[in-house]
Amino acid sequence: MKEWYQLEGKEALDQLQASMKGLSSGQADERETQYGKNVLKESKKKSTLQVFLEQFKDLLVIILIVAAVISMISGNVESTVVIFAVIILNAILGTVQHEKAEKSLDSLKALSSPVARVMRDGRKVEIDSRHVVPGDILLLEAGDLVVADGRILENYSLQVNESSLTGESTNVEKQSGAIRQGQTALADQVNMVFSSSLVTGGRAVILVTATGMATEIGKIASLMNETKEKKTPLQVSLDQFSSRLAIVIMAISGLVFALSLYRKMPILDSLMFAVALAVAAIPEALSSIVTIVQAMGTQKMAKEHAIIKDLKAVESLGCVSVICSDKTGTLTQNKMTVQKAYFDGHTAGVNEFKSRNPVAQYLLYAAVLANDAVFTDGKMIGDPTEFALLELAHKLGIDEGVMRKEMPRLGEIPFDSDRKLMSTKHKIYGKPTLLTKGAVDVLLPRATHIMTTAGERPMLESDRQKILAQNLEFSQNGLRVLAFAFRSLGENENISLASEDGYTFIGLISMMDPPRIESRNAVASAVRAGIKPIMITGDHKITASAIAGKIGILQADDMAVTGPELDAMGDRELNEKLEKISVYARVSPEHKIRIVKAWQDRGHIVAMTGDGVNDAPALKKADIGVAMGITGTEVSKDAASMILADDNFATIIQAVANGRNVYRNIKNAIQFLLSGNMAGILSVLYTSLLALPVPFAPVHLLFINLLTDSLPAIAIGMEAPEDGLLEQPPRDPKEGILRKSL
User: Fold this and answer.
1) In terms of domains, do 597 and 671 share one?
2) Do 381 and 361 form a contact (C-beta atoms < 8 A)?
3) Is residue 419 a part of any domain in this protein?
4) Same domain, residue pair 139 and 181
5) What residues in the chain have per-residue pLDDT under 70?
6) 599 and 230 in contact (C-beta within 8 Å)?
């Protein structure tokens, strides 16, 4: 079967046995039974009791429980109470950490609009969005939240913001015609709308093709259900450490017990010797100290705009070797800005608009007047591209409100995605004039003249070639380009589509979402620290590559790959090229998970940044999920283990330095605890071998371990970072805590 975007409107209607009059109430009820409600299903979560009981699975904890039971049998009540109190306190700490519940699906559900306008029984009605079914005719207008996936049947200049789903920051201009080519990336399916996206302009009639878990956002919810969180390197190290220590403790305790029995000691006394040894050997304060050191690390990071949701993430940051970063807002400023213009035969910077050049003057008129964006109470309302043009005027000290009053709009032909043009009629210097902006490839063929400082003259082929060459140069640098032209009108001439011809070409304006000033230094710091930065974005390949090149992510020998190109690669080919690919463009949520998994399979610890719904599964899959605090959706924040309060890539690098220091301090604290415990083990072992009385009751050893050992260990965990911490390569995550030196 063809994809929905490949079908003509009538074919799609026939496929779903629907009509423009909508479904009947009976058909809608049948389909709701067949497809289910238009809601997202939750995965089954563990109960608090299950989480609490899981805290007792650790082998060292089991040994302590056995020791407590033996103490109870031998009538040693104090030891029994203290051991159980320590075990339960640690279990409560673990449960509280875990119960910072994953609200990701709740946030996804909250994105659904409560009501939808649909055709039912031939009439327009408003219904609860849960009751929308495939085959419904959905009516969309500016300001609506799309409640289901659908094929556009009738399009009236519809513009949709899909950034939370595709990662692309600009509004998408929709169309109704079928897309005949093969596989098309989600961001390029311009005749489709997707659940959770926002209608920013125009209106449309939609045939609903998928609801609930079958929608694109539903697939993301499924991915989140399937995505298992990985243990952090420290957890893995501590697990290995615990199991090895437990084996040693059981072996020595067994030996001491056997020796005691051999010496004809009473069985209970022999057991108490073994219990004392086990309690001496187990560092009971270890998990509490690790938690305290990590908590102190999170407080320090919070002051530096990195908010850590999951304590375990602090130390994982220390061995991050790959950072997969979103482009928009993290590496860039998340706002379109005018870069350069081309008029009167040369390129010009923003400041050259201040000259008395009449061509620059006309270019500014066209940029401000053929523009629907407005400033209201210091906020922008409208398309980001149009807003960038207004910001240009503001930088030059021009009040667009005054200009629009002096040259009011007398008529307009709105922008649409088929024409790729927008025209407005004004009186400029007393003459009726049509100002037009649009795509270079559409506007240039309609121009017969060109404006120069010497006045208007017929356009030559050499002029045309020079304009096309300049457009290509701008585009190759990742800039978005708009062309501007004007045409004189008759005194009472009404404008129509036929008016959009015979233009005088004015010039080009190029713009982009520029890199953050600090991004280049942050990327350089990451490379010095042995971390590979990778850009993953929903934007176009040329734009992404240009930005990545400017900030140092894309080096001379590196590759940029699109989502469809990634689909064409097998796992083996991807593995071969992985180290060389620095930019992924036009990607979907599944691609992001695949990229993260490919690096993890190579033994790397991966940090992944994101702000949209589409990023949530990959944020959860990564070792460190990093969400944006300013632009991030609630879904991405819930799925992440760290939130950037300033949406800044440089903050991640600072957090990595802090993470490395936290690990170093935890390791030093463990070394201190073990050296203290070693003294306890040797004392008990020595007295046992020489048949002397037990030097400590288990409760004494617990007191030593929990108080006199733990306070200095916490102090060790507070040590400030040493210079050059970022100059060192990331530690090997497979490296255990029990190295030979320790």
Assistant:
1) yes
2) no
3) yes
4) yes
5) 1, 42-46, 58-60, 90, 93-94, 97-114, 143, 164, 167-169, 224-235, 280, 284-285, 288, 310-312, 376-382, 417, 612-614, 633-635, 736-738
6) no
611 a catalytic residue: no
Together in a domain, 177 and 30: yes
Whether residue 162 contacts residue 172, with contact meaning beta carbons closer than 8 Å, is answered with yes
Kindly state the greatest CA–CA separation across the chain: 121
Residue with tokens 């615990």: 242
Contact call for residues 440 and 467 (beta carbons, < 8 A): yes
23 and 37 in a single domain? The answer is yes
Q: Which DSSP category does 41 fall into?
A: P
User: Is 307 in contact with 589 (CB distance < 8 Å)?
Assistant: no
Answer whether 0.85 is exceeded by the pTM.
Answer: no
Point out the domain boundary residue: 476, 497, 512.
Answer: 512
Quick one: 681 and 696 in the same domain?
yes
Tell me how far apart the alpha carbons of residues 528 and 661 are, in angstroms, rounded to a whole number: 17
Cβ neighbours for 608, distance < 8 A, ≥ 6 positions apart: 323, 324, 536, 592, 596, 615, 618, 619, 621, 622, 624, 625, 626
Residue 527: the pLDDT is: 93
**Placement of tokens 């069985």 in the chain:** 267
Does 222 map to a domain?
no
The span from the CA of 187 to the CA of 216, in Å, is: 12
Residue 422 shares a structural domain with residue 378: yes
Q: Are residues 327 and 392 in the same domain?
A: no
Q: How far apart, in whole angstroms, are the C-alpha atoms of residue 315 and residue 656? A: 9
Number of domains in the chain: 3
How buried is residue 181: exposed, middle or buried, by Cβ count under 10 Å (0-12/13-18/19+)?
Answer: exposed
Task: Let me know if residue 84 belongs to a domain.
Answer: no
Domain of 442, in residue numbers: 337-512
**In degrees rounded to 5, what are phi and psi of residue 502?**
65, 40
Distance CA(671)–CA(319), nearest Å, equals: 20
Determine the distance from the C-alpha atom of residue 86 to the mean position of all C-alpha atoms in its chain, rounded to a whole number.
39
Within the chain, how many helices (H) and strands (E) appear?
A: 27, 26
Q: Which of 58, 144, 188, 326 is an active site residue? A: 326
Which CATH number goes with the domain that contains 151? 2.70.150.10
Residues 426-441: b if buried by 16+ CB within 10 A, e if exposed: bebeeebbbbbbbebe
- Of 214, 244, 269, the position where a domain reaches its end is 214
Q: How far apart are the first and last CA of the chain?
A: 62
From residue 337, alpha-carbon distances to 172, 382, 425, 563, 570 in Å are 18, 15, 26, 27, 39
Q: Give the separation between CA 584 and CA 325, rounded to whole angstroms.
A: 10
- Give 17-28 pLDDT, tens digit per residue: 999 999 999 999
What CATH number is associated with residue 311? 3.40.50.1000
Residues in Cβ contact with 129 at an 8 Å cutoff, skipping those fewer than 6 apart? 38, 112, 113, 114, 115, 116, 147, 148
SS3 letters across 394-459: HHCCCCHHHHHHHCCCCEEEEEECCCCEEEEEEEECCEEEEEEEECHHHHHHHEEEEEECCEEEEC
380/325 same-domain check: no
- Structure tokens that stand for 355 in this block: 């000259």
C-alpha to C-alpha distance for 414 and 421, rounded to whole angstroms: 8
Q: Which two tokens stand for residue 280?
A: 């001496």
Asked if residue 221 is part of any domain, the answer here is: no
